Amino acid sequence: MKVHVLGCWGAYPEAGEATTGVLVEHGGQRMLIDCGSGVLAQLFQRVAVPDLSAVILTHHHHDHAADLGVLTYALLLSRLQGTRTQKLPMYMLDGPADRMKELRSEPLIDLHVVGPSDALTLGGMHIRFTPTVHPVPCMAVRIDTGDASFVFSADSSWTDGLVELATGASLFLCECSMYRGQERDAVAVGHMTAPQVGEMAEQAGVGHLVLTHLPHYGDHGQLVAQAKAAYAGRVSLAATGSTYEV
After folding, report:
1. How far apart are CA 99 and CA 105, in angstroms?
2. What is each CA distance from 79 to 42, 107, 146, 159, 168, in whole angstroms?
């Protein structure tokens, strides 16, 4: 399984980059998780519209969903040009009525409203979810392939359910929006600090922790150091275009 980081910024993208988006490749399948601002420009460097197998949206905040409408336009043009004829499955929590109506209006989109207790199987990837703690309904994602596992936290403040989902994961891509000392602010907006992320990775016993949903201020090296103070394993910072083999 290959995990490609298409965007790693919280709230808005830095110049030439993107907010949240992850491409997962396994068994000939190419699945997009989240479609934030700038993600399509990064995605299309790796995968064309006809080759995309599925989309999972963890929640409907703009920094995770801003390019979803643009993807709808890309599918429309692909349909008109005949470059894609097979429907693209999209899995997500129920969202704003206008967005859901737009997605349902495109014949090439096969929209599935899922809940955090649902499970999916796609090309040898076994996928399950858990609810996170965020101002809007949101779900973390776990993918198991038999010999490897990948967990994406989506957006959340601390929840034992996320620890349980991440337990034993080979790769844990976890939001890390704030620094030590910002715990009160983190809870208020549904995010985590670096020490909390490190503690979560330690409790879950993950193999490799990658920090994402990064803040636009401060020294990101401190995020790594603060996470390492609580977690004995490998810690990395996500970067646009980085790839992890799991």
Report:
1. 10
2. 21, 8, 35, 42, 41
Task: Give residue-wise pLDDT tens across range 121-142.
Answer: 999 999 999 999 999 999 999 9
Which residue segment(s) compose the domain that 193 sits in? 2-245
Q: Which of 3, 13, 41, 54 is nearest to 174 (CA)?
A: 3
User: In whole angstroms, what is the distance from residue 104 CA to residue 204 CA?
Assistant: 38
| pLDDT (tens digit per residue) in 63-82 | 999 999 999 999 999 999 99
Number of domains in the chain: 1
pLDDT of residue 201: 99
- The separation between CA 174 and the C-alpha centre of its own chain, rounded to angstroms, equals 9
Q: At what angle do helices 68-81 and 97-105 cross, to 10 degrees?
A: 10
Domain with 183 in it: what CATH number?
A: 3.60.15.10
d(CA 112, CA 13): 28
